[in-house]
Specification:
Number of domains: 2
CATH architecture of the largest domain: 3-Layer(aba) Sandwich
CATH topology of the largest domain: D-Maltodextrin-Binding Protein, domain 2
Strand content: 15-25%
Number of helices: 11
Structural class: alpha/beta
Distance between the termini: 68 Å
Low-confidence stretches: 1-21
Order of helices and strands: HEHEHEHEEHEHEHEHEEHHEH
Number of strands: 11
Strand order of the largest sheet: 2-1-3-10-4-11
CATH superfamily of the largest domain: Bordetella uptake gene, domain 1
Radius of gyration: 22 Å
Largest sheet: 6 strands, mixed
Shape: globular
Length: about 325
C-alpha cells in the first residue's frame, strides 16, 4: 500500500512538472516593479507599457512602485525575485551605476547588474535642466552666473544620491565649477513636485515628466545633456554646444527580468515588448508624454546597455564618495 501510494505521489508530481513545463507564459498576473514613486520617468513609461502588455497577454500587469535608496530597493527586489518571468523591472539608467556607488561609499551592493537580464529598451532621452517659468533665469549662461553669485544657495532636487537626476547635475557642477545645494527625494515624481511647489530652484529630469509643465508655461527648459538637440525641445541648447563636452547623460528606461529566467520566457517577454513598441495607442501615448520612443531589444539593447553602463561607472568613480 505504501509503495502504491509513493508511486501515485511520484506520478502526480511528474504530471504536475510536465504541466508546469507546458504552461504557456503568462498564465497569471505579471508584476512590473518601478523602483520609484509615481510620476517619474520610469513610471511615465512603465504605465503605458504595462497597459499594452495587458491587452496582448490578457492578464493583469500591475505597476508596483517600490521606491527608496535612489532605486536600489526596487532594483534589488527584482534581482532577487523568483526567475519565472512574473516579476519584471522597468528600470532607469541609474540601475547600472548604483552598485558601483555603493562600493565607492564602502558598502556591499544589494544587487549587481549581472543579476538582471536586459529585455527591451523603450526610451533613451537626455536629461533636461528646467527652472520655474517665473524665474529670471532664461539661459544656461544666466544659470551659471546666478549659481556663482550665490554659492551653496541655488538648490536642485533629485531622486536620491547617485540617481539619474543627481548625476547629471553633479557633472555640470564639476564641469562649470559650481557649488549647489543638492536636495534628494525618494523619486523623480516628488523631486518634480518640489520644484513646482517652489521648494527648490531647478531640476534635471527626463523629458517625459517635465514636458507637460514646459508646454503649460509652468517651467522653462534651459539646457539638455544630449549630443544633439532634443526633439520637442528644439530651441533648447545642449551643454556640449555651450562648451561642456563632458556633460552628457541619458535617462533610459528599459525592461529587465531576473537573470536566471528561462530563455523561452525571456523570448516571450521580448516578443510582447516588440508588439508594444508597434502598438499605435502606445506610440501616441509616448509622443503625448514627451518621451521619444527608442525601442531596442536583443543584442542591440545589450550593446547600448553595456556601453552606457561603462560610462556611468566612470562617472560615479569620478564623483567619489558622498557623505
Amino acid at each position: 500500500m505504501l509503495r502504491r501510494t509513493a508511486l501515485a505521489t511520484l506520478a502526480c508530481a511528474a504530471g504536475a512538472s510536465i504541466a508546469k513545463a507546458q504552461e504557456v507564459f503568462p498564465s497569471r498576473a505579471v508584476s512590473m516593479v518601478v523602483a520609484f514613486p509615481p510620476g517619474g520617468q520610469a513610471d511615465v513609461v512603465g504605465r503605458p507599457v504595462a497597459a499594452t502588455l495587458e491587452r496582448i497577454w490578457r492578464v493583469a500587469v500591475p505597476i508596483v512602485n517600490r521606491g527608496g535608496a535612489a532605486g536600489a530597493i526596487g532594483n534589488a527586489s527584482v534581482a532577487r525575485a523568483s526567475p519565472d518571468g512574473y516579476t519584471l523591472l522597468m528600470a532607469l539608467s541609474s540601475m547600472a551605476l548604483l552598485p558601483e556607488a555603493a562600493r565607492v561609499n564602502g558598502r556591499e551592493p544589494t544587487y549587481t547588474p549581472e543579476m538582471l537580464a536586459p529585455i527591451a529598451l523603450f526610451a533613451a532621452d537626455p536629461t533636461v535642466l528646467v527652472v520655474p517659468a517665473a524665474s529670471p533665469i532664461r539661459t544656461i549662461e544666466d544659470f551659471i552666473a546666478d549659481v556663482k553669485a550665490r554659492p551653496g544657495q541655488v538648490s536642485y532636487s533629485s531622486a536620491g544620491n547617485y540617481s539619474a537626476l543627481h548625476v547629471p547635475m553633479a557633472q555640470l557642477s564639476q564641469a562649470a565649477g559650481l557649488d549647489m545645494l543638492h536636495v534628494p527625494f525618494q523619486g523623480g515624481g516628488p523631486a518634480l513636485t518640489a520644484l513646482l511647489g517652489g521648494q527648490v530652484n531647478c531640476l534635471a529630469s527626463g523629458p517625459g515628466p517635465v514636458a507637460p509643465h514646459v508646454r503649460s508655461g509652468a517651467l522653462r527648459a534651459i539646457a539638455t545633456w544630449g549630443r544633439t538637440r532634443l526633439a520637442g525641445f528644439d530651441d533648447v541648447p545642449t551643454l556640449i554646444e555651450k562648451g561642456f563636452p563632458d556633460c552628457e547623460f541619458y535617462i533610459w528606461v528599459g525592461l529587465f527580468a531576473p537573470a536566471a529566467t528561462p530563455a523561452p520566457v525571456i523570448a516571450r517577454i521580448r516578443e510582447a515588448s516588440a508588439q508594444v513598441a508597434r502598438d499605435p495607442d502606445f506610440i501616441r501615448i509616448m509622443a503625448a508624454s514627451g518621451n521619444t520612443l527608442d525601442f531596442r531589444d536583443g543584442e542591440a539593447f545589450l550593446r547600448f546597455y553595456n556601453e552606457d553602463a561603462a560610462r556611468l561607472v566612470r562617472t560615479v568613480r569620478a564623483l567619489g564618495r558622498i557623505e
